[in-house]
Amino acid sequence: DKGEYRHFMLKEIHEQPRVIKATMEGRVTESRVLEQALGTEAGELLQDIRHVQIIACGTSYHAGMVARYWIEDLAGVPCSVEVASEFRYRKHVIQKDTLFLCISQSGETADTLAALRQAKQAGFRAALAICNVPGSSLVRESDLVIMTQAGPEIGVASTKAFTTQLTALLIFTLALARTNGLSKNREAEIVKALHLVPGQVNDILALDADIAEMSRRFMDKHHALFLGRGSQFPVALEGALKLKEISYIHAEAYPAGELKHGPLALVDSDMPVITVAPNNSMAEKLKSNLEEVRARGGELFVFADRAANVNPEHNTHVLQLPEVHEITAPIVYTVPLQLLSYHVAVLKGTDVDQPRNLAKSVTVE
Ligand code: F6R
């Protein structure tokens, strides 16, 4: 039931504050991750883990890409991420004590399950699943499971599943990081930041009218470029995926530092450039990338932390977002991009909840 909402996608976007909170429940206190957050067997296992191999498809793959930044930054454990359809068809070197981590909303994605079944034969230390559907094949076949608490996701374009995957992945990262020397203070700082996320997402939902206004500028566009740096690069990828899935506008995402290495050639007044710019250590570098775009007449849409001081100028639309912690920023910054795609699709009159050619659960390869 869509309730008061026009589409399931919009309803699911608005559910995010609640379901992010639900995914934290029973797993974190005010300032730390609970020992039992990943189940009782996990504690000992995590101490042995020297490497993490993440496998997923689509939006879930983007969640895995964010997690790689977290796992290497906070836990200091090497992490590889690969789409399941690639991983399953190539030879790979398995390092000792590698945790195999599958991320899937449905738990029924054919390629992800095939990769897991291979991995179980291949000598990984253990298989952990992050999944939204209890009783799914992925949940049944994994050694350890962290359930996201997104509830049923009906819209084909994944929204709340992604932000709850990120929430679960950050909790997992903190549990792993603790056995690898993360200080109590740093853990407390990040857990406290995580508790602020539902409220920050609400603040962004309150900007809906501004984002809807912005979306009008995309009506006559055929292409769009998304830029992000660091852990916001996967957020840019996810923003581009949402836009292409539901509005059928061709969209690509690049790490902002790659602009000069090719995509800058595409930038002209017909190419909107969307950037996520929280106030992190990369903000200054990102601002100089924006200058490069502006100098070529590109129209810029910047979602930026107030403190990043990105000023609206000619051809630059800035939406100022609440201040967020650098670690939790990817969760929060995903939401305005979801809303942007949603409004563009509504204006274009596409079938938002059932985009052409796509299925909710990809059970064949
Ligand atoms: C995008 C989308 C897909 C899925 C992908 C994996 O909005 O929904 O890209 O993320 O098909 O599905 P799961 O997570 O069920 O394995």
Q: Which keywords apply here?
A:
alpha/beta; single chain; binds fructose -6-phosphate; five-stranded parallel sheet; 365 residues; 10 strands; 16% strand
What is the average per-residue confidence, as pLDDT, rounded to a whole number?
A: 93
What proportion of the residues form beta strands (DSSP E)? 15-25%
Radius of gyration: 20 Å
Q: N-to-C SSE series?
A: HHHEHEHEHEHEHHHEHEEHEEH
Q: How many strand elements?
A: 10
Give the strand order of the largest sheet, numbering strands 1, 2, ... along the chain. 2-1-3-4-5
Which helices and strands, and how do they pair?
Blueprint: H1 8-14, H2 16-24, H3 42-48, E1 51-56, H4 58-75, E2 79-83, H5 84-87, E3 98-104, H6 110-122, E4 126-131, H7 137-141, E5 144-147, H8 160-178, H9 184-205, H10 208-215, E6 223-228, H11 233-247, E7 250-255, E8 273-277, H12 283-295, E9 300-305, E10 316-321, H13 329-348
Parallel strand pairs: 1-2, 1-3, 3-4, 4-5, 6-7, 6-8, 8-9, 9-10
Bound molecules: fructose -6-phosphate.
